[in-house]
Amino acid sequence: MGQEAVIAEVVKHSTRTSLPLDQSPPFAIECEILEDKIYTRLKTLIIERHFVVGEKIQPDRLAKEMGVSRTPVLNALKRLAAEHIIECIPRRGMFLARVSKRELVRLFEVREALECLSARLTATQITDEQVDQLGELFRGLDVNPTPEAVARYLERDRYFHWELVKISGNRYLVNAMDAVNVMVFTFQYGLYRPIAEAIQEHWTLLDALRKHDPAASEAAMRAHVSRTRELVKQAVLAEEQEGQ
Prior knowledge:
Layout: H1 3-14, H2 34-47, E1 56-57, H3 59-66, H4 70-82, E2 86-89, E3 93-96, H5 101-123, H6 128-136, H7 147-168, H8 171-187, H9 195-210, H10 214-243
Antiparallel strand pairs: 1-3, 2-3
Helix pairs in contact: 1-7, 2-4, 2-8, 3-4, 5-7, 5-8, 5-10, 6-9, 7-8, 9-10
């Protein structure tokens, strides 16, 4: 199976089918701090590819599925629009924003800086038990480039990186990474590298973290993230050459 076919299958495995409106609300949430909860839930749904680029986002439908009124859903969507995650097009509606590969390169530049800081800080905070738990995410994982294997790896990779940020204990870093990760994780499909190669980089990073070595942890993270950034750059150059 070629990479384009794999990507298409991964998206299929990662995207839900819309539920009929007469079913019980699948995303029902408590009323407490409603707008914040809706905002957080929407970001999770976007990362998990419940929405795809080009699909119109329907506030009324979302409100019914969440079991809430339309106003807090609209307010949450406006917050996402301010972060350039949602695009509001006059007289057409709201859509998941399109991100070009060139813009994705810039996102990865920011992500690289934040992830390296995360690794450096986490090296002084992480316990051996946490290192072991993170390592289990990739132990025995299928490394074949099938749609199911790719989707499973990407899900665990997201969890791995997010846990490192949380272990760092720096809430400002957590907030900064949250904004970047929504965009990166949403558009990373099709930009993955061989699973076995990426997992080996995770082992190198985990070894440095176990030794509580901030410099080595930062270097391992930089090597890991920069390789994906270079992959995106190569995709940009290929597109530009095709357009000439």
